[in-house]
Amino acid sequence: MSGLSAISIWIIPSFIFIILLIATWKKVPTYEAFTDGAKEGVNLSFSIIPYLVGMLVSIKVFRESGALDFFIDALRPLFALFYIPTEILPLALIRPLSGNGALGMTSDLIATYGPDSFIGRLASTMQGSTDTTFYVLTVYFGAVGIKKMGDALKVGLSADVIGIIASIIIVRLVFL
Question: What digits encode the pLDDT tens for the residues 36-65?
C-alpha cells in the first residue's frame, strides 16, 4: 500500500477522532449531540418527501404525455442548423430536473450510439457539466422553508444552459 492510499484510508476516521477529541476537551456531550443531529436528520428526510414526490411525478407526466417528443420535434430544424444531434435534447432537458433520469438517458445514449461516438461523448460531457437545478431548489430550499427562489432558479438554469452549450462546443472542438 502506497503512502497516499494509507492517508486516504485513514483521513476520515482521523478527522472524526479529532472532532470527538476536541468536543470532549470542550466538555460537549458528544453522544447526545450526535443523537439530536440524527433526530433532526430523520425529521428533515420526512419533510423532503412531498417535494421529491411532486418533482418526480411532474417529470414522469412531462415524458409520458408526449410533451417532450413535441418539444424535440419543434426544435429539430433549429438544431439541424447548428449540426447538433436532437438525440441529446432529452438529456439536456431532463438533467436540470433529475440526476437519476439524466443518468438513465446518458446510459441509453451510450448503449445505443457507443461511448466513442459523438453523441456518447457529448452525453457524458453534458452529464458532468450541468447540475440538477430543480432538484436542488426543490429539496434543499423546501427543506429549510425558503419560498422565494426566483434568483437562485435564474442563476441555476443559466449555469445549466452555459454548461450544455460549453459541452457541445468543447466536444465538437475536441472530437470532430
Answer: 888 888 887 787 777 777 777 877 788 789
- Residue 53: strand, helix, or coil: helix
Quickly list DSSP for 106-139.
Answer: HHHHHHHH-TTSHHHHHHHHHHHH---HHHHIII
What is the reported pLDDT for 122?
A: 95
Cβ burial of 131 (10 Å; 0-12, 13-18, 19+) is middle
Cell triple for residue 17? 477522532
- Least Cα distance to 152 among 139, 164, 165 occurs for 139
pTM for the model stands at 0.66
In sequence order, what are the residues at sequence separation of 6 or more whose Cβ sits closer than 8 angstroms to the Cβ of residue 76?
86
